[in-house]
Amino acid sequence: MKKTLSYALLLAGMTSVPAMAHIGYGHRNFGTFDGSTLTSTTLTGQAATGNWGWIDGTDADYGNSHRVRPFRFTLTEESNVTLSFKEATGEVTDHRGNVHTAELGLIPGFSLYQGLASLRPIPLPHDGSDLSVASRPDYAEGSFRAMTDWSIGNSPGDLNGTVIPARLSFFEYIGHAYDGTGYGSDGTQDNMVSHTFMNLGAGDYSVFVGGSDYLAQLDSNPDKMTKYGLEGTLTVGVVPEPETYAMLLAGLGLMGAITRRRIRTGSV
Ligand SMILES: [Ca+2]
Ligand SMILES: [Ca+2]
Ligand SMILES: [Ca+2]
To answer: Is pTM, for the whole model, over 0.85?
Structure first.
C-alpha cells in the first residue's frame, strides 16, 4: 500500500526539495544487512551544527532535531550491531549543495531507535510542523529526545490537488552512548564513541548523532553554531543460531565424558 502510493507520487513527478533541515537520510543510509557475514560500512562527509545537539535532547525540555544528524540501516535478520561515531574534518556538502568546511572537535553522542522518518516523496518531518508542535509540550525546544521514545510530524503534502495528510513518524528508543567523562558516558573523552547492540531484530532503524557538550549551547560560546565533522561506522556481526549453541553444548558434554573416562582410566 505504502509502496504503491510512493510509486504513484514518483510517477506524478513530485520533486519538492526539502526545506532546511527536515529529517532526511540522504547519504546517511548504512544499507540493508542480513547479519550472515561480518560487514563494516563507514559513512564520511557528515557534520553536526554545534557540539551540543545530542545531549540537549537528554533533558526535560527535549531537543532541536536540526542539531542532530539522522542515519539509518535495515536488518533482514536478527543481528548484532556495533555503531561507532567519531570526529572528522573536511568539506561537507549540505542538502542545497553548499560546501562547508567542518571542524574537528565533535564530542559525539548518539541514540538508536527502531523506526524511520517518513521518506520522500511523502513530506519529511520537521520540528516546526503543526503536527510536531501539537504533539509535544509547549515548553519543548523541539521534538528530539535522546533517551526515550519520541515522534515528529510532517506537514500535509499536495499532489495535483490531492492532500496527503500530515502524519507522525515514531522512533522507539533502544539505547544510547556518548563520548566523555560525564555520568553514563563512555568514560574517555577522545572524540569517539562506540556501542554494540546485541540481537537486534529485523526491521528499520534510525540513529541520531550530535554533540554531547551541554554547555556548548550557551550564547557566550563562539562555536555554538560551528559545523563539526563526523563519520560513522556500522558493523553488523553474526548471532549464533540456536542449533550452533546446541552443537556447542553437546560437544562440551562429549568432551566432559571423555575427560572423565580418561581420569578414571588414568590416561590423562
Ligand atoms: Ca533541551
Ligand atoms: Ca537547550
Ligand atoms: Ca570516547
So the answer is: no
User: In angstroms, what is the span from residue 209 Cα to ligand 1's centroid?
Assistant: 15
Amino acid at 208: F
Closest ligand to 58 CA?
Answer: 1
Name the band, by pLDDT with cuts 50, 70 and 90, for residue 97.
Answer: confident
Ligand 2 mean position to 56 CA, how many Å? Answer: 5
pLDDT band at 135 (very low <50, low <70, confident <90, very high): very high
Residue 7 is predicted with a pLDDT of 43
62 Cα–ligand 2 center, Å: 8
- What value does the mean pLDDT take over residues 90-114? 92
Among 149, 69, 75, smallest CA distance to 110 is for 69
* Every domain of the chain and the residues it spans: 22-237, 240-268
With beta carbons less than 8 A apart as the criterion, state whether 52 and 211 touch: yes
Given the C-alpha cell 537520510, which residue does it identify? Answer: 25
Assign a CATH topology to domain 22-237: Jelly Rolls (2.60.120)
